[in-house]
């Protein structure tokens, strides 16, 4: 393989143990839950500890992943976390003001809005080119139509958001606001809970939040982070899972069978005209993650 990213030395990149999605309110603790088939928990193929030869092969694998851009630089990862905090602050301020204006109630920022990152960032397998999927959870007093009408202007007022990148896709299966923040792509969706204010210690994985949802789009948007959390719950060793998934995703990209992506170093076997169409219908990121976890 030839390197496609030039992501620096192994000391410059974030390793699996450095990622912890539990820092975000709304995600909560991640505890292991084995897969169940026919009411019987599925056992791992082997629980044998790695020997010296396994450790050596794993070390070579990680070294190659670093060379191929399979990890993100540590300072770039810190930048992502800072961006999420800034988006959180913008949305919280807007939500508090909206609730005060529309129903005349003063609520705390935590009760008005929570953001939950999901997808590759929450799984801890993102690379330099990955986007960030973010769900904004709000109470029912905030209208979905008003969210999509007003939030783009709030984001556009931020100097670090690329104005031409803002795009509202409200009629999609999963409605999103797309933007570039410091050259990092963000997909922002929203889900409205059936409550006047968000509950204390809100956890997006709690099934009780789905019970009273009446809109299909709210349920669909909630599925994003819930699936991500459930994947992490189903693997007994998250660190090893992340290394496996990084390897699979790199392999899939290099063979042009990773859906919804345009590889910076496409497979030489694909002609320029067939490069995009050849990826249609192949598994995407969440599908590869589910298969790797299983």
> Uncertain spans, ≥5 residues at pLDDT below 50?
1-7, 261-266, 271-278
Q: Supply the number of helical segments.
A: 9
- The global form is globular
Oligomer: single chain
Report the C-alpha radius of gyration, rounded: 20 Å
Q: Strand share of the residues?
A: 5-15%
Question: In terms of topology, how is this protein built?
Answer:
Elements: E1 36-37, E2 40-41, H1 52-67, H2 74-103, H3 109-112, E3 114-118, H4 120-123, E4 132-139, H5 144-156, E5 167-169, E6 176-181, E7 184-193, H6 208-211, H7 216-233, H8 238-254, H9 285-293
Helix pairs in contact: 7-9, 8-9
Characterise the protein shown here:
It is globular, with a radius of gyration of 20 Å. It is 39% helix and 12% strand. It is an alpha+beta fold and 294 residues long.
Quick overview:
With 294 residues, the chain is α+β, with helices and mostly antiparallel strands. Helix content is 39%, strand content 12%. Helix 7 (216-233) crosses helix 9 (285-293) and helix 8 packs across helix 9 (285-293).
Please tag this protein with its features.
294 residues, two-stranded antiparallel ribbon, disordered N terminus, 9 helices, alpha+beta, 5-stranded mixed sheet, 7 strands, globular
């Amino acid at each position: 393989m030839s390197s496609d990213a030039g992501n620096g030395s192994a000391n410059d990149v974030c390793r699996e143990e450095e990622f912890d999605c539990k820092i975000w309110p709304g995600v909560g603790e991640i505890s292991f839950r084995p897969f169940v088939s026919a009411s019987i928990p599925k056992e791992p193929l082997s629980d044998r500890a790695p020997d010296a030869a396994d450790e050596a092969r794993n070390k070579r694998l990680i070294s190659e992943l670093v060379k191929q851009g399979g990890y993100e630089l540590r300072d770039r990862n810190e930048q992502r976390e800072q961006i999420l905090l800034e988006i959180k602050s913008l949305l919280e301020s807007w939500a508090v003001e909206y609730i005060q204006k529309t129903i005349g109630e003063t609520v705390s920022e935590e009760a008005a809005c929570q953001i939950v990152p999901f997808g590759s960032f929450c799984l801890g397998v993102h690379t330099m080119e990955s986007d960030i999927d973010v769900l904004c959870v709000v109470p029912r007093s905030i209208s979905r139509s008003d969210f999509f009408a007003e939030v783009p202007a709030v984001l556009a007022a931020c100097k670090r958001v690329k104005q031409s990148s803002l795009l509202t896709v409200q009629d999609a299966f999963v409605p999103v606001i797309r933007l570039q923040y410091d050259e990092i792509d963000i997909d922002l969706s929203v889900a409205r809970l059936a409550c006047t204010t968000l509950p204390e210690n809100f956890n997006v994985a709690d099934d009780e939040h789905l019970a009273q949802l009446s809109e299909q789009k709210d349920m669909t948007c909630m599925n994003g982070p819930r699936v991500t959390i459930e994947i992490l719950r189903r693997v007994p060793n998250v660190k090893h899972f992340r290394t496996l998934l990084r390897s699979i995703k790199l392999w899939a990209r290099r063979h042009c069978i990773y859906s919804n992506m345009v590889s910076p170093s496409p497979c030489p076997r694909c002609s320029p005209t067939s490069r995009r169409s050849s990826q249609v219908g192949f598994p995407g990121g969440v599908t590869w993650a589910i298969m790797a976890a299983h």
